[in-house]
Amino acid sequence: MWNTHLLQMYLSPLYTTLHKADYPLLEGAMKVRLAQKSDSAAVQQLLASVFDDDPLMEWFVRHDDKRSLAFSEFFDYMVNRYCFKYGECWVNDPLTGAALWMPPGRWEVPLTDQIASFRQVLTIFGIQQLLKKFSDRNTIDRNHPRHPHYYLAALAVLPAERQKGLGSRLIQPILKRCDEEGIGCYLETSRERTIRFYQRHGFSIMKKLSFSPEKLPLWCMWRTPNTQRRHTTSAERQNTP
Predict the structure, then answer these.
(1) CB neighbour burial string for 118-155, b if at least 16 within 10 angstroms, e if fewer
(2) Topology (CATH level 3) of domain 10-183
(3) Is the CB of residue 89 less than 8 Å from the CB of residue 35?
(4) pLDDT tens digits for 144-183?
(5) Which of 36, 174, 194, 203 has its CA 20 to 30 A from that of 221?
């Protein structure tokens, strides 16, 4: 029910192990790597800083004297109960950027986890707006693709590090994997200025949703895998001695 792009993220050890050898550190000025559990607090702080002024976050999180606590609980949920548990998180050193991904079939929060985290979710939304926010969440969920895909739950880069290619580096390992596996990618963004960035990486707009009395926008975007790259990679492997 509350399993959408704002409530999602963290690293599955088994899943990570299977892919570590395929995606080593990217060389250059901005190396990226898979986050470890010891990075949890830093990733939460990064997300809180980057999404502090996000318009959709402003709308969804409660507006009362517990708002600060709600933000803290929200990012704890995203990192520890979602991405680090069922997906993977790519970061750089120092931690000025992070890309949080969910693998195919894992974007929805299991019912047992939803029940276990109900008190935390109640803290995030507040009891007065709970049903309304759940309704909005369900609208997002209903527009989420059902066929297999990788889900970019969040991409966060500190303002001082933007326009340097870090965001592209952070998402590249999974985009490469998608092309090799022939699987699409999906994301949602509430910032219009990020649309062109994602379009440069092959994403296109599927649908535009809106929330709150102010009609805050949310763009749903899809990336079809680059099959030419997939075929090239397969040919290279066949020619490898």
Answers:
(1) eebbebbbbeebeeebeebbeebeeebeeeebbbbbbb
(2) Aminopeptidase (3.40.630)
(3) yes
(4) 999 999 999 999 999 999 999 999 999 999 999 999 999 9
(5) 36
Kindly give the residue spans of alpha helices, DSSP state H, lying in the chain.
13-20, 40-50, 55-60, 67-76, 84-86, 111-116, 118-125, 130-142, 166-181, 195-200, 227-238
- CA 105, CA 13: separation in Å to the nearest integer? 17
128 pLDDT higher than 90: no
Angle at alpha carbon of residue 153, lines to 127 and 14, rounded to 5°: 110
Global pTM value: 0.80
Q: What is the mean pLDDT of residues 28-40?
A: 86
Q: Which residue has the tokens 């690293």?
A: 11
φ/ψ of residue 163, rounded to 5: 65, 25
The string of pLDDT tens digits covering residues 192-212 is 999 999 999 999 999 999 987
How many CA atoms are closer than 13 Å to the CA of 72, on its beta-carbon side?
5
Q: Residue 137 to residues 9, 75, 104, 188, 201: CA-CA distances in angstroms? A: 16, 17, 20, 12, 27
101-111: pLDDT as tens digits: 999 998 887 77
| Residue tagged 């990012």 (tokens) | 75
Query: Distance between CA atoms of 82 and 3, rounded to whole angstroms?
Result: 9
Q: What angle, rounded to 10 degrees, do the helices at 118-125 and 67-76 form?
A: 140
Report the amino acid identity of residue 240: T
Residues 6+ apart with CB under 8 A from 115: none
What whole-number distance in Å separates Cα of residue 99 and Cα of residue 218? 19
Query: For residue range 46-70, what is the model confidence (pLDDT) as tens digits?
Result: 999 999 888 888 888 887 888 888 8
